[in-house]
Amino acid sequence: MSPRGLGNIPKAPEGDSGGGERGNFIRNTRILTDGEFCKIRFLTDVDEMYFEWQHSVRDAQGNFRGYKICPSSAFNQECDDCKSGNNSASLQFFGWVWEYNHTYTEPGDNRTSIKEGKRTVYREDVNAVRLFRYSNFHKASLEMRANKYGTLLDRDYEWIRSGEKGSKRPQYMLEPSDDGKEPMPKELVTVAAGLPDLEDVALGRVETLDVNKKDVPYGEEEKVITIPLDDDKEEELPF
Predict the structure, then answer these.
(1) What sign for the dihedral angle of Cα 177, 182, 185, 191?
(2) What mean pLDDT is predicted for residues 64-79?
(3) pLDDT class for 230, splitting at 50, 70, 90?
(4) DSSP assignment, residue 12?
(5) SS3 state at 214
(6) FRET pair for 172, CA 20 to 30 Å: which of 30, 78, 132, 184?
(7) Which residue would you say has higher pLDDT here, 198 or 22?
(8) CB-based contacts of 85: which residues, under 8 Å, 6+ apart?
(9) How far is residue 97 from each of residues 45, 140, 225, 233, measured CA to CA in Å?
(10) Domain ranges within the chain, ordered by starting residue
(11) Angle CA(20)–CA(49)–CA(142) in degrees, nearest 5?
(12) Furthest-apart CA pair in the chain: how many Å?
């Protein structure tokens, strides 16, 4: 049986870096610096999130290129990375979210300046499916909200980063929307039902999204096409 549910994630052993960096399978939620956040609706509840040990993948020049499942953990097979001791595994969890918009601290293309309290931030509309992939160290905020409300699926949230870019131990806060409890829109229910299985994504079996699993705004008719997933060529992130 594949590992599911944040409550079933074991405590990290001593020496685990807990890295929850983004992989190269699809577009992830990426919050890079202090004060940056995104507005999301969870499409996967805590008891359905997938978790597994992952090793980083690097090219010949040593540049980070994503992650691969640890075969020792997933398949009870010998793992060269574990055997060598040069590339320790990190425990990560995976879930699906719908990202409505993303708020940055710096201006950029397709961003609209907005006054928020005493500061000016820059918001970009996203309206797309994202993979919510993080270190097991960040599961507590999700579990806390799920324990309080009984589910993560009945309201929107803001996922907020505290920690400058490059920080080895950033923190994340999951704040419920001021709108309170709202049923998941029917369009998002349909989107969620068509998403790939998280285990298939984590294992690299799924590398594209078909017509029922598209990274496009819901409610918009599209031609039948295959959309390649996001290839991560950016810097490795610590969390």
Answers:
(1) positive
(2) 80
(3) very low
(4) P
(5) coil
(6) 184
(7) 198
(8) none
(9) 10, 17, 22, 22
(10) 6-228
(11) 70
(12) 55
Nearest to 164 by CA among 91, 237, 66, 90: 237
Dig out the tokens for 114 from the structure: 């907005």
pLDDT tens digit sequence for 3-19: 777 777 655 444 343 34
CA–CA separation, 144 and 7 (whole Å): 11
Task: Please state the separation of Cα 13 from the chain's center in Å.
Answer: 22
Helices (H), the chain: 71-75, 80-84, 139-149, 186-193, 198-202
* Amino acid, single-letter form, for residue 147: N
Q: Is 73 exposed, middle or buried (0-12, 13-18, 19+ CB in 10 A)?
A: middle
CA atoms of 139 and 172, how far apart (whole Å): 10
CA distance 73 to 10: 13
User: Which two tokens mark 196?
Assistant: 């790939």
Q: Would you state the structure tokens that stand for residue 3, as one six-digit string?
A: 């590992």
Radius of gyration of the chain (CA): 18
- pLDDT tens column, 206-222: 866 553 444 434 444 33
Q: Looking at this protein, which amino acid is placed at residue 238?
A: P
Q: Are 97 and 129 in contact (CB under 8 A)?
A: yes
The whole-angstrom separation of Cα 79 and Cα 71 is 6
